[in-house]
Design goal:
This protein has about 110 residues and is mostly helical. It is built from 3 helices and no strands.
Length: about 110
């Protein structure tokens, strides 16, 4: 009987060691999962960077379109005399010799 009691005690210790081993494995897996999700190179950061990149790409597209508009405007200013005259009249209230410029003032209530 004394031998039977001695054999049971080491078996119990092995169970505790085995369960603590699984606990360590689970803990390491959880730490790796947290690192993958929230770390500097994790999924959250990756998603954030992709969103920022998409926003930057959209801004680049807008700026390129604006640049093309400005190039067209510059070319038109270099070549189209009627357009230049129209801008001078509307924006700067310029007039040809002999013309008069009238400024219409609206009442504040209208």
């Amino acid at each position: 009987m004394a031998r039977a009691k001695r054999r049971k005690k080491p078996l119990r210790r092995r169970k505790k060691n085995g369960s603590s081993w699984w606990g360590i494995v689970v803990l390491v897996c959880l730490l790796l999962l947290i690192a993958l999700i929230a770390g500097d190179h994790g999924l959250y950061r990756l998603i954030k960077i992709k969103r920022e990149r998409a926003a930057i790409q959209e801004r680049i597209t807008e700026l390129r379109a604006h640049q093309e508009e400005l190039k067209a405007e510059a070319k038109r200013l270099e070549t189209d005399r009627e357009y230049i005259e129209k801008l001078a009249r509307e924006k700067y209230r310029m007039a040809r010799k002999g013309e008069r410029v009238f400024k219409v003032i609206e009442k504040p209530g209208k």
